[in-house]
Description:
By secondary structure, the protein is mostly helical. The chain contains 2 helices and no strands. The chain has one domain. The mean pLDDT is 88.
Amino acid sequence: xxxxxxxFPPLSVQFKEGYHAFVRGWLINRYDETSFKGKxxxxxxxxxxxxxxxxxxxxxxxxxx
Length: 65
């Protein structure tokens, strides 16, 4: 008997969900925080935060000049 491995969607799905969650203001991670999916969601959320922060800093520098 051949046992098939469980198939999971690529973790980029959870990363994108986390990224867009920050933009929309959704603060709750729907995955277990200790799972790979939960960590990828958090990584996407954090990446979105820092991308937004970079945009704000760049905008502030332009308005000071």
